């Protein structure tokens, strides 16, 4: 890190060091990318996003990592959560892990109300991710103690505003903010009751 960041990284003394302990790891997982060495990465625009000299891309040899969801940055790769959970177990002394965010985006403006409410791709997304989480638990002994879907309702999403929906509940912004459960909300409730 010091070699890459140089003088922008402050000096730390042994008195500055802190012994880090934690009760659990909170993991947000939405997508995965291929990584490649981009040395030197943007030498004229040094900043923390490029200090690692790593470029990310969703395609390798013209083949996508997985299907693209509604958000331009999200590619569906359920196996990635399993690999990440296993990696965390191996490299961080087998901690307790809570998956604090995992969700599927859709472009709301392109959907009719019935298409918005019938969000079968979101159900498939959560089902496949939960299957991979179970593989990590059952086959690799990862200590996952919780899984939280992002998000309860369609909300304001950073650069996408209200155009992208991750929610299990639809908020109709043209009809007095009425709320309707999507199929994924019903599925999620049934899944929790059964399992």
UniProtKB/TrEMBL annotation:
Top-rank lineage group of the source organism: Eukaryota
Molecular function as annotated in GO: beta-glucosidase activity
GO biological process terms on file: carbohydrate metabolic process
Entry-linked InterPro entries: GH, Glyco_hydro_1
Entry keywords, A to Z: Hydrolase
Similarity comment: family membership: Belongs to the glycosyl hydrolase 1 family.
Protein name as catalogued: GLYCOSYL HYDROLASE
């Amino acid at each position: 890190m010091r070699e890459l960041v140089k003088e922008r990284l402050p000096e730390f003394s042994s008195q500055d060091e802190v012994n880090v302990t934690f009760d659990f790891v909170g993991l947000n997982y939405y997508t995965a990318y291929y990584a490649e060495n981009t040395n030197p990465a943007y030498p004229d625009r040094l900043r923390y996003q490029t200090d690692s000299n790593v470029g990310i891309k969703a395609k390798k040899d013209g083949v996508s990592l997985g299907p693209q969801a509604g958000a331009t940055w999200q590619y569906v790769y359920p196996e990635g959560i399993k690999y990440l959970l296993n990696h965390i177990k191996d490299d961080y002394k087998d901690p307790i892990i809570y998956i604090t965010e995992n969700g599927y985006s859709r472009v709301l403006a392109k959907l009719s109300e019935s298409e918005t409410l019938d969000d079968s791709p979101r159900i498939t997304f959560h089902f496949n991710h939960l299957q991979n989480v179970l593989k990590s638990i059952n086959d690799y002994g990862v200590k996952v103690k919780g899984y939280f879907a992002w998000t309860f309702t369609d909300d304001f999403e950073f650069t996408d505003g209200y155009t992208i929906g991750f929610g299990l509940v639809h908020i109709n912004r043209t009809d007095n903010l009425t709320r309707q459960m999507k199929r994924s909300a019903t599925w999620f409730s049934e899944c929790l009751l059964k399992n």
